[in-house]
Design goal:
The structure is a single chain. With 355 residues, the protein is α+β, with helices and mostly antiparallel strands. The protein contains 12 helices and 13 strands. It folds into 3 domains: 127 residues, Rossmann fold (3-Layer(aba) Sandwich), CATH 3.40.50.20; 148 residues, D-amino Acid Aminotransferase, Chain A, domain 1 (2-Layer Sandwich); 63 residues, 2-Layer Sandwich (Dna Ligase, domain 1). Helices cover 36% and strands 19% of the residues. A hairpin with a 4-residue loop joins strand 12 and strand 13.
Length: 355
């Protein structure tokens, strides 16, 4: 098949997306597909010649990509685009996607995981991988996901939805909110826009810091426990992974993506009944939000052995060393096979949506 692996874009998870996309593209090409890597924001600005011949590029347009220790400078990315146009789709992106049999979404965060790209492709009749626009949009919003958890009986920490707050509101909120807690922007990812204050002074600083990203946050009770994640593929859940950060008190951006940042154990060393419990919760939330194909849900397991759901990821990291591929490997599914399975399930999902 002709497959565009769409990655990059203009979100705080741009570097992660480029590495995921490169890995996916290599895997699909190894399975015999005419896969090409396309940066959603920069597009094919360096391609010369017939556009249809992109699929014949011997290297699949795969360049070099690495995840830095800090989030990307998005303003520098904007300035680096040749056409300086307002569209988030770069040169010829929509045209080459329309020529493909399917677009594999290697995007992460806003500008890819929030449903806008999926909605655009639905309107244009372009098949793509993963969940549809509505479920993607709801899952990207941590507040909406929390409401969904409460509605479907998935346990989550006590929380508060803080909408449209300003600098002037910070003293009042600091007084009202309990510590220790977790403060999170509603549409963040890769632990960007997350703070874990233990004191009122730290809470005040956290609320002020989050205004850099927007004025809508959730504040939840901080629960100490083991960090677990479990993926859903098709209609089943996969073995759980336990994440043990080595460089910070929690699974932050560096712990997620830098060598030695965390120890990841798959399958997690938990009782089988606990795995089934969190797996069923992950599957329930996946279905409640109307997701399809695959997702990955994060949990904390407290000292009493009770699971607490944190969030769901509709386009989880997809490097061979990422969490979902590790879970698939634990059931005997190689990385290349996983990428192919996502394509197969996605084509079936898009066909069903058109019926």
């Amino acid at each position: 098949m002709k497959i565009v692996v769409l990655c990059g874009g203009l979100s705080s998870e741009r570097h992660v997306s480029l590495v995921s996309g490169s890995s996916i593209c290599r895997a699909l090409r190894s399975r015999g597909h005419q896969a090409v890597l396309v940066d959603m924001f920069l597009g094919l600005e360096n391609w010369e010649g017939n556009l249809a011949q992109v699929f014949d590029a011997p290297d699949g347009l795969i360049g070099t990509a690495a995840i830095e220790t800090s989030a990307p400078d998005l303003e520098a990315v904007r300035r680096g685009r040749k056409d300086q146009g307002p569209s988030l789709f770069g040169k010829d992106v929509l045209a080459i996607c329309a020529m493909a049999d399917i677009v594999f979404l290697g995007l992460h965060g806003a500008c890819g995981e929030d449903g806008r790209v999926q909605a655009a492709f639905d309107l244009l009749g372009i098949p793509y991988t993963g969940a549809g626009y509505l479920g993607s949009g709801m899952a990207m919003d941590k507040a909406l996901t929390k409401y969904a958890m409460e509605r479907c009986g998935v346990p989550t920490a006590p929380w508060r939805d803080i909408v449209s707050y300003t600098e002037e509101d910070i003293p009042r909120l600091t007084e009202e909110l309990e510590v220790p807690c977790a403060v999170k922007i509603v549409n963040g990812g890769s632990s960007i826009g997350v703070s874990l204050p233990d004191t009122k002074a730290e809470l005040e600083a956290a609320l002020r810091e989050m205004l850099r990203y927007g004025s809508h946050v959730i504040v939840e009770k901080k629960i100490h426990g083991r960090e677990l994640t479990v993926g859903v593929l098709g209609d089943r859940y996969l073995p759980a992974v336990e994440i043990i950060p080595q460089t910070a008190g929690y699974f932050d951006y560096v712990a997620k993506y830098q060598d030695g940042g965390s120890l990841e154990i798959c399958p997690a060393h938990i009782e089988e009944k606990v795995w089934h419990e969190i797996g069923e919760y992950a599957l329930r939330l996946h279905r409640t939000l109307g997701l399809s194909v695959y997702s990955r849900t994060d949990f904390l397991l407290d000292e009493a052995g009770r699971p607490w759901c944190l969030e769901v990821n509709t386009l989880p990291g997809m490097t061979p060393a990422s969490l979902l591929p590790k879970e698939a490997a634990a059931v005997g599914m190689a990385y290349e096979e996983l990428c192919d399975e996502i394509v197969r399930l996605s084509l079936a999902a898009r066909k069903e949506e058109r019926l």
